[in-house]
Amino acid sequence: MKASLTFHKLMVGLLVIYLLIPLVGTLLFSIAGKWDHTILPESYTMKWYIELFQDERFYDAFRRTLFLIVMSVGLSVVIMLPTIFIITVYFSKWEGFLQAAAMLPYGIPPIVGAVGLIKVYSDGPIQIAGTPWILIGAYFITILPFMYQGIRNSLRTVNAVQLVDAAELLGATKFQAFRTVVFPNIISGILVSTLLSVALLFSEFAFANLLVGGRFETIQIYLADKLNSSGHLTSAIVITYYSMILLLTGTVLKLSFRKEKNPVVSNKNRILSLFKKQYRHKNTALEGEK
Amino acid sequence: MSYVTIDQVTKGYENQVVLNNISITLKKGEFATLLGQSGCGKSTLLRSIAGLEGVDAGRILIDGIDITNLSPRQREVGMVFQSYALFPNMSVFDNIAYGLKMKKVKNIKSRVKKIIEMVDLIGKEESYPHQLSGGQQQRVALARALVMEPKVLLLDEPLSALDAKIRKSLQKELKRIQKELDITTIFVTHDQEEAMTMSDRIFVMNNGQVVQSGSPSEVYTSPVNTFVAKFIGNYNVYDMEVFRKIVRNRELKGTEVAIRPEVLQLVSVGEDSLDLQENWGIKGFIKDVSMTGNVLRYEVETEESAFHVDYLHHRGKMFEQGALVHILVPKKECIIL
Question: How many helices (H) and strands (E) does chain A have?
Answer without folding.
Answer: 14, 0
